[in-house]
Amino acid sequence: MNIFAAIDLETTGLDPARAEVIDIAIVPLNPDFTISTDIPEFSCRIQAEHPERAEQLALETNHLNPAEGETIKEVRAELVQWAMENGITTITPLAHNLAFDMAFMKAAFPEFSRIFTHHGRDSMRLALSMNDVFAMQESEGHFNSVSLQSLKLALGVEGDVQHNALEDARDTAHVYRKLMALLRAA
Predict the structure, then answer these.
(1) What residue spans in the chain does CATH classification 3.30.420.10 cover?
(2) CB 69, CB 47: distance < 8 Å
(3) Structural domain 2-121, CATH architecture
């Protein structure tokens, strides 16, 4: 079965060749980008294999201890089991900065990352494109910042948790749905 899913990762830095994933969430979505109640979410904290490589700014941002969590090997097995138990063969991902998350997925979960299609959706890029449309129309309503937190505030998405993979994946789905509603109304 092919599903849409919001994904989010928290990492120990910005370079997928050096940094590690320490928090992962995959939130299945319905075709209208609402959160599915038919397929369970997948979320897991991951213990860094090389916590000494963690960038201080990344740890200050996500408030995670890289020494806590399950091993990457355990999480890889759990991910495969989750997909198999739920009949998931492909995932069309939705993320906020999809290229970043997919680069880390490929580095941390090379076998599992093949499940993702190349037709992903990106709430950050959609907001940037909408800014272009607003500018061309010389109309009000552009987004001064396209960070997830800024878009949540601009679009009235509730919740103040930031840099928690599960909450950010859910928020990404809500933000994307609100952006799509703005497009429909335009």
Answers:
(1) 2-121
(2) yes
(3) 2-Layer Sandwich (3.30)
- CA–CA gap between residue 59 and residue 52 (Å, rounded): 12
- Tokens representing 139 are 């109309």
Cα–Cα distances (Å) from 48 to 52, 95, 124, in that order, read 9, 22, 27
Strand partners, 7: 26
Per-residue pLDDT of the chain (186 residues), as tens digits, is 999 999 999 999 999 999 999 999 999 999 999 999 999 999 999 999 999 999 999 988 888 889 999 999 999 999 999 999 999 999 999 999 999 999 999 999 999 989 999 999 999 999 999 998 888 887 766 798 999 999 999 999 987 778 899 999 999 999 999 999 998 886
Residues whose CB is less than 8 angstroms from the CB of residue 26 and which lie 6 or more positions away in sequence, other chains included: 5, 6, 7, 41, 42, 43, 79, 82, 91, 169
Strand, coil or helix: what is 142?
coil
Q: Dihedral of the CA atoms 104, 7, 116, 145 (nearest 10)? A: -80
